[in-house]
Amino acid sequence: PEGFTDLDRKAIDTARVLAMDAVQKVGNGHPGTAMSLAPLAYLLFQKWIKHDPSEPDWVARDRFVLSPGHTALTLYTQLYFSGYGLELDDLKALRTWGSKTPGHPEVGHTTGVETTTGPLGQGVGNAVGMAMAARRERGIWDPTSGPDEPSLFDHTIWAIASDGDLQEGISGEASSLAGTQQLGNLVVVYDDNKISIEDDTTIAFTEDVAARYEAYGWHVQHVADSEDLASLDAALAAAKAETSRPSLIVSRSIIGWPSPNKQNTGAVHGSALGDDEVAATKEVLGFDPAQTFQVADDVIAHTRQVVERGRAARAEWQPSFDAWRSANPDQAELFDRMRTRTLPEGWADALPTFDADPKGMATRKASGAVLAAIYPELPELWGGSADLAESNNTAVEGEPSFLPPSRQTKTWSGGPFGRTLHFGIREHAMGSIMNGIALHGGTRVYGGTFLTFSDYMRPAVRLAALMQLPVTYVWTHDSIGLGEDGPTHQPIEHLAALRAIIGLDVVRPADANETAVAWRTILEHNDRPAGIILSRQNLPVLDRSEFGSAEGTAKGAYVLAEASGGTPEVILMSTGSEVQIAVAAREQLEAAGTPTRVVSIPCQEWFAEQGPAYRDEVLPPTVKARVSIEAAVAMGWREFVGDAGRVVGLDHYGASASFQKLYDEFGLTAEAVVAAARESI
Amino acid sequence: PEGFTDLDRKAIDTARVLAMDAVQKVGNGHPGTAMSLAPLAYLLFQKWIKHDPSEPDWVARDRFVLSPGHTALTLYTQLYFSGYGLELDDLKALRTWGSKTPGHPEVGHTTGVETTTGPLGQGVGNAVGMAMAARRERGIWDPTSGPDEPSLFDHTIWAIASDGDLQEGISGEASSLAGTQQLGNLVVVYDDNKISIEDDTTIAFTEDVAARYEAYGWHVQHVADSEDLASLDAALAAAKAETSRPSLIVSRSIIGWPSPNKQNTGAVHGSALGDDEVAATKEVLGFDPAQTFQVADDVIAHTRQVVERGRAARAEWQPSFDAWRSANPDQAELFDRMRTRTLPEGWADALPTFDADPKGMATRKASGAVLAAIYPELPELWGGSADLAESNNTAVEGEPSFLPPSRQTKTWSGGPFGRTLHFGIREHAMGSIMNGIALHGGTRVYGGTFLTFSDYMRPAVRLAALMQLPVTYVWTHDSIGLGEDGPTHQPIEHLAALRAIIGLDVVRPADANETAVAWRTILEHNDRPAGIILSRQNLPVLDRSEFGSAEGTAKGAYVLAEASGGTPEVILMSTGSEVQIAVAAREQLEAAGTPTRVVSIPCQEWFAEQGPAYRDEVLPPTVKARVSIEAAVAMGWREFVGDAGRVVGLDHYGASASFQKLYDEFGLTAEAVVAAARESI
Questions:
Q1: Which of A540, A564, A587 is the last residue before a domain boundary?
Q2: What angle do CA A45, A46, A51 make, to 5 degrees?
Q3: Whose CB among A618, B102, B143, B459 lies 3.0–4.6 Å from A656's, allowing a Cys bridge?
Q4: Least CB-CB distance to A173: which of B163, B169, B497?
Q5: Do A411 and B207 touch (CB under 8 A)?
Q6: Which domain holds residue B562?
Q7: For B365-381, how does the pLDDT look when each residue is reduced to its tens digit (9 = 90+)?
Q8: Cβ–Cβ contact B164 with A under 8 A
């Protein structure tokens, strides 16, 4: 590339040496790909990525996603070279307790890392999400620039994907959607090394990846040799210049190059090379085999010039930003709010309340009404569904879809800056794209599907929790209450399985008003994901003059109905659609002279955050007679009901019939709760 | 097609009318696709599928997979037409309690249904698995026929896939592998109707599916109009004739055709048409709008001829089978054993036992040794991994890979009838393919990945449990014990989340000998899936002259170390790699004069199946002081430790460091267990 000298080549080889040395020192890790990706990574960080290491949060920076997180050294070495604060000692501390260089890159842990990767395929979804978020954010802040005009917020999402990433279905889902969305701001380089852990990928991966991406509508280029910097550079230039489609560059590399004995083998993927091979490779590269972590002063001085170039680029950009700020005070205010994920004053006043109604309303419908009410207040809020808009009640009427103009249909109009997302039948990519959207900036995104299909997106949900990203899952049709679709569609174990995920709030409101408070509380948190779990079937809207206030939802659990006399002999606790059964059981018990309290527990995680005083107030430790009822597996409820309690739930799969029939046949009835209460007393 | 008459066209239209009427009667369901798929489904069941409805379990029958399970009526109507035992009353009972016609097809529930579908994409994976199993089974039973020669066991796997199926990543994963495997016995018809729930798929699905499948190495054909029976017929013929590659037929259809007002809309996908539109459509088709479930006698008499044709086909085949039986007594014995999933006498004698060894052995390594030992005894056992053969210890040395000859590599040799599976980095497809393999016949298949990535395959695991398929997941690297790879790779919530799945045995052995008994017990069950959860790190091989016998593993829980004096003051319970911590804690407690029992609980599900007498013997109800220790979330353990007990676990994600460091830093130590025991006493 123009301006590149022998010093650049030496820096690239230094990156290879550091990768070998770091893995050799700790005794485990993944050296091979870090060696062969060194030229590409160097070229990206030194030339193509628009970034300022002295301001890693610069809004207009390009983003870089390393989907094969196992080659973390690829990234760490460039962060060290580029002056992000990583130093040689950090590389020496690779994969050890407390280091800045964990086994896989972790966002929030190491400056310059944009997303946590490792589970393969996720990075591709994240990158697609970032590219979508970049378009939407730009449309929010800079609506006067037309879609085809440049904007000061424009930037590029660069990603590297490995053989493993492209075998995982999630990357195919996300890439297909990227094609539909014509994401011209996305460039993915496929590191085509034809080696994975089981060695030569011929045993399992023989497809024509380039042709597949062409079929998705991507712009596809080939680089025959990843050591050929000029070709790589030209391909990156062409990819960036292509703004009407996402770009894939298929770059053929030799894993572990130039290790004389281990290049192009599965062995070099996930194991240290061994002292002899490290030495032999250093000799090939002209490094002193007797030294480790050898970085020439001129190399690091040269590579650190990124900082100055970055500062200059940002300084050049700053006036346009300042001018934009002055000219667009409303957008600037929104911009500032979004940068800190702060909600506007008084936004919650727009939340609807719902009148008592015994016939009731499905909580999914209430959720739709809540979204419609708060959309005008929160421009940062957007979302959609995995092809279930009407079922999940996720699309707000009259809002434009987020679509290239040519992708509009008679049902959905919109534009490139639209607000309603259409993920297609791709729950896993939806989850990963939502993560990318949240990582990219301050919008608040939600995505819907049936609760059963939370399983399809579970790896992405876990990563959202691990990364503490404020995304919201709208999971409807939340139990056997969905009825006729039968056992494949009826969640039984999902509530427990989701509650098991650390850092995820699982919120299952009992009626329309709990739904409103649930949404408010979810949005008030900006440091974690939440799933709002909603019914297909109508649920009575409880009369809050008779029952406890739905405000209790925000505390995770609250006394919905107090025992007569104020001192319960038994506590019935429940969530969502089964709360009405607890209420009915209470009536029977009270009629028979048993003082009975009903506790609604819409969110165990929020309840756990309350102090012990409140928790003991709601569930007094002296009351040992307790019954939980939830149309789901019992797992987790013993913690609440104790040794003397009873759990009314399901220990089998569902069936295809009307929901009323299923509740009766499966014994999820007031009578069963009453019987369990009598046993417990 | 040759021989087809107006009566066939009338039968096809009758199928459309039945679909409309059945949905209209129950008030919900999916009529549209059943209407437009009627010609294809009829052609398949009447002409192309080799089957005998009077012997639905005929080993040489073709298999049919309806991946879009929501269009269950497509299948139910053809089963009714073909004489599988479904009658008009069953269609009238669609989606009601106890009917043979649930909302989605359920294998084992309705005769003629080969797999449970509904969660999209799974059927494609199932079909790929069936095609692989067909090849392997044929290789086991009929090894003297060369790969390119016909065999009496040959047959074809036919599948229908929808837009939704092909958007889901799992279908892409499975289809890519099908290309690598050159599955010439697989024909998938893609019902290209360009409509999903959010209507026109242009908003989310614009890729060139045919080109994508060509990129996978499939044989791809187009049918421009799904009502054109002759074209469909010719395409099916060409697809069947193509035996060196899997075939995709892209068949363009109009959903809901010929409904005058609702065809080609999202509305007709998942809702009843309404009385008026049903009437209007009947008029178009020449049916009496005043009648429902109208089936002309000549139509049903005509379609039921399938039974006679099927009987004749089977009768024609039978002599070749009988001849094969006589000529191959050993294979015939194996055949009979596999048909009933019966294990051979004495097979378990081959299981290894492991000598006591404080330094120990990783249970994943013990698992590999077990597999190597029993492979000669159980030809029906085969398996592989999602590109982690060496890590999961799933590949038995010297065994041939299941690969087309051209896909062999320097690391893996084999052939089309080989035994070691290479799934690629595709956990989800692996799960779905394993289901297809188990559905197809009596082989016993296992598949490995890291426990964390059980999340990637979870929807398929759930379906295995729902279908009660005896597949085995080898999930290794089962905790923070995997060490340096860090939090993305360290399972924390997975044990709880998997135990929440009804019908799945979750087995986590504590040492090498528990591993052997675990494998034996898993294989002795033929009515359910199991996950065997294995350590990366070495675990002491316990000295069974000192500790309880590893045979206790088969009961799910057993007394590993009795309290001194025989009456425990406290019980420590644990699983897997943490059992050694419980043992160490017991030593400290006993030294301090506290009689302490250690209970190993490798499988909660097996323990639950024991009678109360045994359960109370292991965990005497009188002993309230109890501590559990597991390197995982606490969820589920309260059930075992009770109100007075303590749970030592993790309530946060892991980190990147050596496993010893992590156990210490996270307080998973004997000291912590001792302290918890003192609190509990």
A1: A540
A2: 60
A3: B102
A4: B169
A5: no
A6: 553-680
A7: 999 999 999 999 999 99
A8: yes
